[in-house]
Design brief:
It comes from Desulfobacca acetoxidans (strain ATCC 700848 / DSM 11109 / ASRB2). Residues 25-218 form the Metallo-beta-lactamase domain. By secondary structure, the protein is an alpha/beta fold. The protein has six helices and 14 strands. The strands form two sheets. Strands 6-5-4-3-2-1-14 form a seven-stranded mixed sheet. A seven-stranded mixed sheet has the order 7-8-9-10-11-12-13, covered by helices on one side. α6 (247-263) links the parallel β12 and β13. The protein starts with a strand and ends with a strand. The structure holds zinc ion (2 copies).
Length: 281
């Protein structure tokens, strides 16, 4: 499988000359299997450009959208995803069960509420809602997807995507802390990601920032590296970049994360996710 980052930013889009390298769009990752089956994780603002590319290909769009949770930065792009206005589009929405209802609320509810002029049931695409992952693995062609509850205000879900003997884990908006409830402790996430080829993890904050931001549902690059080492993953990509973080600061975070890996004598390839980057797993 391969994946492409369409949005790597957290909390709010951050366009501008300081965010060109790592990107300003919010959470959206496309995953395509060897057989060509398509998963999209999150509908942040990055999904708009993905939609344009899919429509330009001229082929009917068929995909499974996995929503991590219903915070704005993870659903904001859906109304601007061009395939939802085409009747030959087929979308199954799964992931965090609550997130689907949050997503639908963005649209006009015909009672004078919502945040967009079009109603959800006016969209021409065939959009289905399933709650498969909350109840066990989801099979999408040759891909198997498992979910885990993340440690985040109002809850949400992270995902493990497996294809034959390859495996990637996506955990954003996840606060790694030892006093979290059972099932959401660092060791639970390490167990979930054990031996995976790639871990993508939230690293919004610096260690010196986290004290004031405990309980906001995010982690530092140090905590993300520690999790990757504990899980024995081969590669780590830092994700959900703080909107205030410049490209220069992001490169500093990458350098510090690599120093940390070296200090541990570990063999872990670590980088920060860049918008537009394609990764083969
Ligand atoms: Zn977020
Ligand atoms: Zn969130």
């Amino acid at each position: 499988m391969y994946l492409k980052f369409w949005g790597t930013r957290g909390s709010i889009p951050a366009p501008g000359s300081d965010t060109v390298e790592f990107g300003g769009n919010t959470s959206c990752v496309e995953i395509v299997s060897e057989q060509g089956r398509r998963l999209v994780i999150d509908a942040g603002t990055g999904i708009r450009a993905l939609g344009d590319e899919l429509v330009q290909s001229g082929r009917p769009v068929r995909l499974t959208l996995l929503l991590t949770h219903t915070h704005w930065d993870h659903i904001l792009g859906m109304a601007f995803f061009r395939p939802v206005y085409l009747d030959n589009t087929d979308i199954t929405i799964d992931g965090c069960p609550k997130a689907f209802w949050g997503l639908a609320k963005v649209f006009d509810d015909r009672k004078g509420n919502g945040y967009f002029p079009v109603a959800f049931d006016e969209l021409k695409a065939n959009i289905r809602h399933s709650e498969r992952i909350a109840n066990g693995p989801l099979q999408v062609g040759d891909l198997t997807v498992e979910g885990i509850e993340i440690n985040h205000p109002q809850g949400g879900m992270g995902f493990k995507v497996m294809e034959h003997n390859r495996c990637m884990v996506f955990l954003t908006d996840n606060e790694l802390r030892s006093d979290a409830p059972v099932g959401r402790r660092p060791q639970d996430f390490a167990h979930f990601a054990r031996g995976c080829d790639l871990l993508i993890h939230d690293a919004q904050y610096l260690p010196e920032e986290i004290a004031d931001r405990r309980g906001w549902g995010h982690s530092t690059y140090v905590e993300a590296v520690e999790l990757a080492l504990q899980a024995g993953t081969r590669r780590l990509l830092l994700f959900h970049h703080d909107p205030a973080r410049t490209d220069h600061q992001m490169r500093e975070i990458e350098a510090k994360a690599r120093e940390l890996v070296k200090a541990n004598g570990a063999d872990l390839d670590v980088a920060a996710a860049r918008e537009g980057e394609v990764i083969y797993v």
